[in-house]
Design goal:
By secondary structure, this protein is of the alpha/beta class. The protein has five helices and seven strands. The chain has a single domain, classed as Rossmann fold. It has a seven-stranded mixed sheet, with helices on both faces. Strand 5, helix 3 and strand 6 form a beta-alpha-beta unit. It binds guanosine-5'-triphosphate and magnesium ion (MG).
Length: 195
């Protein structure tokens, strides 16, 4: 999947105004600060296309990036961010839920997990919820550069066990710093788009 062109399209705060040209979409979910925006930048090989930040809660809207004029990568606000009001959390929750359950061009979801930690309750709920909607999911364990080789294997095993993954279900190890896993993620996206 050679990425020749990537451009920011727009931010959206509600479903009504989303693009209606029927290009297929791949969305990113995961808790706040897990590295969703960084993954987009790494995949498209652009430092700052998607705004990333060490402060959780950076992405607060549904952000569309158009790739090769042919599909969208969709950056969603992260979940589980403590420092937002309950009202705002509920508003985002509803927006994300509506998007994930009702967005016709959505072909698949990349769910990001922090390789350093076991999946949170929100991660588990999100996965179950996506399964319920029979949404193709690509699981990516990110920040792989932050763990030793030993920890990596150990932590991947914990994630697989928590999610009840069978051995053949892929779990890609990724790092936005070293580029580990970039080609695997691209190949998996290509597969989802081809289905
Ligand atoms: P929200 O927009 O708040 O939901 O966060 P996000 O999931 O988009 O995370 P973002 O990409 O903004 O990254 C959060 C922080 O983690 C930033 O400081 C990134 O530089 C850092 N980060 C992201 N991916 C990696 C990675 O693979 N390795 C390391 N070491 N740091 C990473
Ligand atoms: Mg973000």
């Amino acid at each position: 999947l050679p990425i020749k062109k990537a451009e920011f399209v727009s931010c959206f705060v509600d479903m009504k105004s989303l693009p209606d040209n029927q290009l297929p979409e791949i969305a990113l979910v995961g808790r706040s600060n897990v590295g969703k925006s960084s993954l987009i930048n790494k995949i498209v090989n652009r430092k700052n296309l998607a705004k990333s930040s060490s402060t959780p809660g950076k992405t607060r809207t549904i952000n569309y990036y158009c790739i090769n004029d042919s599909w969208y990568m969709v950056d969603l606000p992260g979940y589980g961010f403590a420092k937002v009001s309950k009202t705002e959390k509920e508003k985002w929750g509803r927006m994300i839920e509506k998007y994930l359950s009702g967005r016709e061009p959505l072909r698949g979801v990349i769910q990001l997990l922090d390789i350093r930690h076991p999946p949170t309750q929100n991660d588990i709920l999100m996965k179950e919820w996506l399964n319920h909607y029979q949404m193709p999911i690509l699981l990516v364990a990110t920040k792989a550069d932050k763990v030793s080789r030993n920890e990596k294997q150990k932590n991947l095993a914990v994630i697989k066990k928590t999610f009840n993954l069978s051995p053949e279900q892929p779990l890609i190890t990724f790092s936005a710093v070293t580029g580990e896993g970039v080609e695997e993620v691209k190949a998996a996206i290509e597969e989802i788009l081809a289905e």
